[in-house]
Specification:
Strand order of the largest sheet: 1-4-7-10-13-16-19-20
Distance between the termini: 94 Å
CATH architecture of the largest domain: 3-Layer(aba) Sandwich
CATH class of the largest domain: Alpha Beta
Oligomer: single chain
Structural class: alpha/beta
Radius of gyration: 36 Å
Number of strands: 53
Number of helices: 17
Largest sheet: 8 strands, parallel
Strand content: 25-35%
């Protein structure tokens, strides 16, 4: 024992001596002369290119060398790497770092000496020879007080994998790695510890299902909890995004991961098809998505602790997090309660810097109608607000409060001030502030992500530019709504889009926020997908980010473009029977929950509002059974949501039924789900269904066109010829089937159609459209009016000539605006001058037209021309 202690301190001294004089007399497998060439590494270096090391290379004390992912380091000749400072190998599962000797290399590749530290992740150490016994290569040697930490590495086909010489046991930690094909996997024959701590080699694969008993290990190490399967993996936790967890019995049951849209089912089943076992090494983490991510991160920590305990102390987990779930996972990793137990974090479509769409929800309780994800989020919030007795989604978000909405607000510039010439505001001045995301994205906290392999998968929905990226806002403050500004034209459904700026993204998260260049990542992948479909479309890549073996099978059976949502408002409970006889809802005799329809979800009974969702419903007759739980009126609302595959927009049809409930009394309502997409309830009190195909809601039409009025009025009981229909154009009754837009003012218009069936049930539908004018359409109308005798042909000729001159001036203006050969200042000045000239010309033309009132032209015709010219006038 005493002799070994003397030898140990001698080796420590010689190793330290070698650091300063460039040679190592203490190493039995490496010899060199003082005259041999030496390369010394000082300071901080990063190697991101392949490299051959053919001379003795020293990482000096306090120096740091990092070798990046995918790099291959080849040793030849007299090459070796002597670590007296810090060596970091930072590979990824997909792109490991490869360390190899060539041509039967018979030396040690890397020496970790006293005071040196080596931290390796996802590295492979291999002798480049077909016959292991021909090679005398030793991969790693650790001496004295050297520190070695290795994770997820492969050490194979070496003579000796890791050689330990009189080390401190606590300094050696090699876990979740693979040893195979080595003559000696680990040599610790010179080890004797007074601290009674063996080097930690637990949770490793030793090249055999029988583990270290048959592995070539010399000396004592802690090889406990060894792995019995070469293709082992960390447990995986799937963390969903906002509004993609649901709880049965409105808070009394268990949280489930998206049982409505089934966003994660394909991913879960794909993992299971490739060797993972649910609740053993594959876990889901549904949660109360309304709460702060800070609170949810604490629950995530508890979940990880439970998994580690269940998995016999397995030290690491992998996290796959979608949307806001990525922020929850980052919150855990980046803050003080992190336990160092996450190996990989893969985020899918996570708004790393926030999502502009959340501004609508935070400021007004509104949602982007173009986005499927936000559409269903609105349904979630609406159900919950009603259940908890809040008058609106806005009140619910701010008073409950739903902190997650605030934590999704952007931390970048996205508001353009309409009251200040459209100037872009600089965040955070005059913005709703997101302190959570500001803190999460601080440089100090982002640095902590380097403790894990962090991979981002980003969705971009083709060439669409439907993702909200910003707003043009004006001052408005009503009852705490729109405190930071309301998007212009927001109250006008036809013009609402003028206040919304859209760009590239996944229809929910802008591309720049998902990319988040301010947050470094190990692996990046961009996928052509929308926000929800990304989970399925990227599942093969997710799997291969986490595992060093390829995926063998993908599951893609879950796709929900069509959803039937049946809601009931007190005081009744419900059960639904599908056309094929399968049931979902409350079993009235037993009080049990029925769910015989795959993928259906029942919120549970005992609340003021209940709902049942059925994905991809069958067409045909559904029976809705209602049983009274009290006395009073009740209402059943059946809504069908179908996704337009081309635009990702939702088409909604709704049918309503009402009744009077008594305790224990049962009612039955028949619901027809039509192939056309409609839902119809078979009751005498159901009003006619009206659909208007022309004019289209929100569409703008040129004022020289003929607009057909096309609609369909149908009823569940009455034949179409028995339905009384009345048309209203701009609130005035009309019987026309077409509208000549030449006789309509520019701006907004409405068409309302009212219908009444034989039972007296009445309904009405209204669409809003708008009319606009151009120089060409105004000229066309001049010719039309002349042909009708409303103006003289000579007057029409003069007007047409003046309009042609005006068109030339507009063309010059457009050419000036697109001229990049002149300075911006000159372009701006020229544009203002030319716009003034054009407007003056229009004003003169208006005056000339007004003078026609005494020349045989009636006031209405003059008014139409003046209206069109004022529309053309540059604002």
């Amino acid at each position: 024992m005493a002799n070994k202690r003397k030898l140990f301190f001698k080796r420590v001294f010689l190793s330290s001596f070698a650091i300063f004089f460039g040679f190592s007399p203490a190493l039995p497998v490496f010899s060199m002369q003082a005259s041999d060439p030496i390369e010394q590494i000082n300071g901080v270096q990063f190697w991101d290119q392949n490299r051959n090391i053919d001379i003795f290379t020293i990482i000096n004390p306090e120096a740091v060398l990092t070798i990046g992912k995918g790099v291959e380091i080849t040793f030849s000749g007299e090459g070796a790497l002597f670590v007296a400072g810090n060596l970091v190998i930072d590979g990824t599962v997909k792109n490991p770092v490869k360390i190899r000797g060539i041509n039967g290399y018979n030396k040690t590749l890397i020496f970790v000496e006293n005071f040196g530290k080596a931290d390796f992740r996802n590295a492979e150490f291999i002798a480049d020879t077909s016959a292991v016994l021909m090679s005398k290569q030793n991969a790693i040697s650790v001496n004295g007080g050297g520190i070695l930490e290795m994770e997820a590495c492969k050490i194979y086909n070496n003579y000796t994998g890791i050689k330990l010489s009189y080390v401190y046991g606590a300094n050696i930690k090699v876990n979740r790695s693979k040893f195979f094909g080595n003559v000696v996997a680990v040599d610790n024959s010179e080890y004797e510890s007074e601290e009674n701590v063996l080097p930690d080699f637990s949770y490793n694969w030793w090249g055999s299902v029988v583990g270290p008993e048959r592995s070539p290990i010399s000396g004592d190490i802690d090889s406990s909890d060894w792995i019995r399967n070469e293709n082992f993996h960390d447990p995986v936790i799937i963390v969903p995004g906002i509004a993609l967890s649901e709880k049965e019995f409105f808070g009394l049951g268990e949280w489930k991961i998206d049982p409505i849209l089934h966003t994660y089912d394909n991913l879960i089943e794909t993992f299971q098809a490739n060797g993972y076992i649910k609740d053993k090494d594959l876990f889901v983490f549904p949660y109360d998505w309304r709460k702060s991510n800070v609170d949810t991160a604490q629950l995530l920590r508890d979940k990880i602790n439970a998994i580690k305990s269940q998995s016999n102390g397995w030290p690491k987990v992998d996290i796959v997090a979608h949307s806001m779930g990525g922020l929850t996972a980052r919150q855990y990793i980046e803050f003080d309660d992190y336990q160092g137990d996450v190996d990989q974090l893969v985020t899918l479509a996570t708004p790393q810097n926030g999502a502009s769409a959340s501004y609508l929800t935070w400021e007004d309780g509104s949602f982007d109608p173009k986005d499927v994800f936000n559409y269903f989020s609105q349904k979630h919030f609406s159900h919950l607000a009603e259940k908890d007795g809040y008058g609106s989604i806005f009140d619910y978000i701010h008073e409950w409060p739903a902190s997650s909405v605030e934590e999704l607000l952007p931390v970048y510039d996205y508001l353009y001030d309409a009251d200040n010439n459209g100037q872009l505001r600089v965040y955070p001045q005059n913005y709703p502030v997101n302190l959570f995301l500001q803190k999460l994205n601080s440089a100090e906290n982002i640095e902590k992500l380097k403790n894990v392999e962090f991979d981002k998968i980003i969705a971009v929905d083709g060439t669409n530019t439907n993702t909200i990226t910003g707003y043009i806002v004006e001052k408005f403050d009503w009852n705490d709504h729109w405190v930071n500004g309301k998007p212009i034209k927001w109250d006008n459904l036809l013009q609402r889009s003028q206040g919304i700026i859209r760009g590239v993204g996944d229809n929910t998260v802008p591309l720049e926020s998902a990319k988040s260049d301010n947050i470094a990542t190990d692996e990046n992948l961009q996928v052509n997908s929308n926000h929800l479909d990304l989970v399925t479309k990227s599942q093969a890549e997710v799997f291969e980010f986490l595992n060093d073996y390829p995926i063998s099978q993908e599951v893609t059976r879950w796709h929900i473009p069509d959803l039937l949502d049946i809601m009931v408002h007190s005081p009744v409970d419900i059960q639904v029977i599908a056309p094929d006889g399968k049931r979902v809802g409350k079993d009235f005799p037993t009080g049990q929950i029925l769910n015989e329809i795959e993928g259906a979800f029942y919120s549970g009974y005992g609340a003021q509002a209940e709902f049942i969702t059925i994905p991809n419903p069958l067409t045909g007759e559904y029976k809705i059974l209602a049983q009274g739980t009290g006395a009073g009126n009740y209402e059943i609302e059946a809504a069908r949501y179908r996704e337009n595959e081309a635009s990702s927009e939702i088409q909604e049809t709704v049918a309503m039924a009402q009744g009077i409930a008594a305790v224990g009394q049962g009612d039955e309502v028949i619901l027809y789900v039509q192939p056309s997409g409609e839902v119809i309830i078979d009751n005498d009190f159901i009003p006619p269904a009206i659909s208007i195909s022309s004019p289209a809601e929100g569409k703008s039409y040129l004022n020289d066109k003929i607009l057909p009025i096309t609609y369909l009025a149908s009823d569940n009981k009455s034949d179409s010829d028995k339905i009384a229909v009345q048309l209203y154009l701009d609130n005035a009754t009309t019987t026309v089937s077409v509208v000549d837009l030449a006789f309509q003012k520019t701006g907004g218009h409405s068409l309302k159609i009212a219908a009444q069936d034989e039972a007296g049930n009445a309904a009405s539908t209204e669409v809003r459209f708008s009319v606009f004018a151009t120089v060409d359409s105004t000229a066309a109308n001049a010719a039309k009016f002349a042909g009708l005798g409303m103006i003289k042909k000579s007057q029409a000729v003069i007007l047409t000539a003046q309009l042609k001159a005006l068109k030339v001036q507009f063309a010059v203006l457009d050419k000036l605006k697109t001229n990049n050969r002149i300075s911006a200042k000159a372009k701006s000045a020229g544009t203002k001058v030319l716009e003034t000239v054009i407007n003056k010309q229009i004003d003169l033309l208006i005056k000339e037209i007004q003078k026609m009132s005494g020349k045989g032209v009636d006031a209405n015709t003059i008014s139409l021309f003046v209206d069109a010219l004022k529309y053309i006038r540059i604002k």
